[in-house]
Amino acid sequence: MSASVTRLLLSAAEAETFLPPAKTALFLGLPGETITSAVISPGPDREAYRSPRKEPMKPSCLLPFAFAALALGSQDAYSQGDTFESRLGIHGRWAAEIRSVQDGSIASGMGFSPGDLIVLVDGRPMRDFSSFGEFLGAIRESLKSDHLTLGVSRYDSSTLSYAPPKSISPPARKSGSPPVEMLGIQSTLTFVVDEVSPGRPADRMGIHAGETFLTLNGRGIGSLQGPAEADEILTRIHGSPDKEVNAVLLRGVARDHAVKPEAETRKVRGPLF
């Protein structure tokens, strides 16, 4: 019998979309197959690996693997890896932050306001796309085909954080009317922190849930091509002698390209280890 690999957990993209970082996992054997190892990979796809073994294992023997999964989960699913989130030890949302809405546009009719975040396009997070531009292109293509559903988060001043995304779709196009490709918004790339893992670099730097990254080591987040470029910046920092990260963070909403008085910005810095 040859070894096999079976995906037991959500992919990173799926987990980041629907769940907080995984804390538990359950490993189940299949008839005629037993588990010799169970490993949670905190890289791009967190998966558990299953392989056959000569001697049968009793179901109770699976418990150590479940406890191992719990132990790994307690260290946070982002404790290793080479992404922006994993290196800092944070969980959050890459999004298109709406800066302005054109009067009379589809976006205006859908109730969009500056400061809203588009975090999902037809159920897919930005990490599913190669760049911010491709994410925006997917919005245009789905809008043109009249099958667009957006996951939109709005800032809640009472909790000083962004609410979970809600699904919003434009009204159906009237029969015979030409396809529409533009929502009527201007947006910029942004990253909002939802959770900070204790003891990790972001925690030691004093980064808090609910804050938005404005800059990363001198680069404006809005100037990046997408999440992958943020990954590359932290990879270079990780390989540098001092490994120092510095960032400007925002708590509140920046609208019309200017930080409102009620919003607060601050600088943080610290080593990436």
Task: Please describe what this structure looks like.
This protein is an alpha+beta fold and 273 residues long. 21% of the residues lie in helices and 25% in strands. It has 7 helices and 14 strands. The two termini are 43 Å apart. Residues 1-80 have low confidence and may be disordered.
Described by strand count, sense and barrel closure, the largest sheet is: 10 strands, antiparallel
Average pLDDT over all residues: 75
Q: What is the helix fraction of residues, given as a range?
A: 10-25%
What class do helices, strands and sheet pairing give?
A: alpha+beta
| Poorly predicted runs of 5 or more residues | 1-80
Radius of gyration: 21 Å
What percentage of amino acids are in beta strands? 25-35%
Indicate the overall shape: elongated
Specify the number of helices.
7
Topology, number of strands: 14
The ordered string of helix (H) and strand (E) elements is HHHEHEEHEEEEEHEEHEEEE
Query: What is the CA-CA span between the terminal residues?
Result: 43 Å
Describe the SSE topology:
Elements: H1 12-18, H2 63-74, H3 84-88, E1 90-101, H4 106-109, E2 117-121, E3 124-125, H5 132-144, E4 150-153, E5 155-156, E6 161-162, E7 166-168, E8 185-196, H6 201-205, E9 212-216, E10 219-220, H7 227-238, E11 244-251, E12 254-255, E13 258-259, E14 264-271
Antiparallel strand pairs: 1-2, 1-8, 2-3, 2-4, 4-7, 5-6, 8-9, 9-10, 9-11, 11-14, 12-13
Key attributes of the depicted protein:
elongated; disordered N terminus; single chain; 273 residues; alpha+beta
Summarize this structure briefly:
This protein is α+β, with helices and mostly antiparallel strands and 273 residues long. Helix content is 21%, strand content 25%. The longest helix is centred in the middle third of the chain and has 13 residues, at 132-144.
